[in-house]
Amino acid sequence: MGDFYQNGIITTLHNLSSRPIDEMEAELLQFSQIRPMSLVLPCLYSELEGPALDKIVTELAKVQYLNEIVIGLDRADETQYKHAIQFFSRLPQKHRILWNDGPRLQEVNNVLQNQGLAPNELGKGCNVWYCLGYILAQGTSASVALHDCDILTYDRNLLARLIYPVANPSFNYQFCKGYYARVADSKMNGRVTRLLVTPLLRALK
């Protein structure tokens, strides 16, 4: 992504990681009674065979505050879709797999294309677009989180910290974006640079 800085009122929360996860999840469970929460997982079929997703599913199976998990499955044939159903069956939460290459969603896509409403390009954006459309059509979630399926260091702390600011009814946040340092070739990259370092340097000028 190109460098940019945020306009408007932006709050940077640095310290959510110091709270015990059990304490935060207990609050989220309380919040979920009045503000149901969903999680979107945009997923390539190849990620089911990768090193990260198995651990992600194991961690998510411990999360009690989610109302629903919506998995957007890309680049899968029918056999692979059936395997995905089995793979995600470990999740105790209500979950739905949107098979984006399947006949039902392709039919929906064709109808929307004829109306000029479908995304023009395939990929993660299109995947997420349909997942969010499904959640909005359900009308049962007040807060929605989204994260990738290739996070090798994943644990359920990540999800709790990501959704807490928008799920807490005492806060007034409508959007939350997690970020962390990405350092490569002696250069800082990623959201920690774009959302923290660059605005800070601009403010100090």
Give an overview of the whole structure.
- By secondary structure, the protein is α/β, with parallel strands linked by helices.
- It has one domain: Spore Coat Polysaccharide Biosynthesis Protein SpsA, Chain A, CATH 3.90.550.
- Helices cover 40% and strands 16% of the residues.
- The chain has seven helices and six strands.
- The protein has a four-stranded parallel beta sheet with strand order 3-2-1-4, sandwiched between helices. Strands 5-6 form a two-stranded antiparallel sheet.
- Helix 2 links the parallel strand 1 and strand 2.
- The radius of gyration is 18 Å and the shape is globular.
- The two termini are 24 Å apart.
- The mean pLDDT is 89.
- Enumerate how many helices there are, as a single number: 7
Share of helix among residues? 40-55%
Estimate the global geometry from the Cα principal axes: globular
Q: Return the CATH architecture.
A: Alpha-Beta Complex
Question: What structural category characterises the helix and strand content?
Answer: alpha/beta
- Main beta sheet: 4 strands, parallel
What kind of assembly state do the chains in view correspond to? single chain
Residue fraction in strands: 15-25%
Could you say what the CATH topology is called?
Spore Coat Polysaccharide Biosynthesis Protein SpsA, Chain A
| Strand segment count | 6
Which segments are poorly predicted (pLDDT under 50) over 5 or more consecutive residues? none
What is the radius of gyration computed over CA atoms, rounded to a whole number of angstroms?
18 Å
Global mean pLDDT: 89
Strand order of the largest sheet: 3-2-1-4
From the N-terminal CA to the C-terminal CA, the straight-line distance is: 24 Å
Mind telling me the CATH class?
Answer: Alpha Beta
Order of helices and strands: HEHEHEHHEHEEH
Tell me the count of domains. Answer: 1
What is the CATH homologous superfamily assignment?
Answer: Spore Coat Polysaccharide Biosynthesis Protein SpsA, Chain A
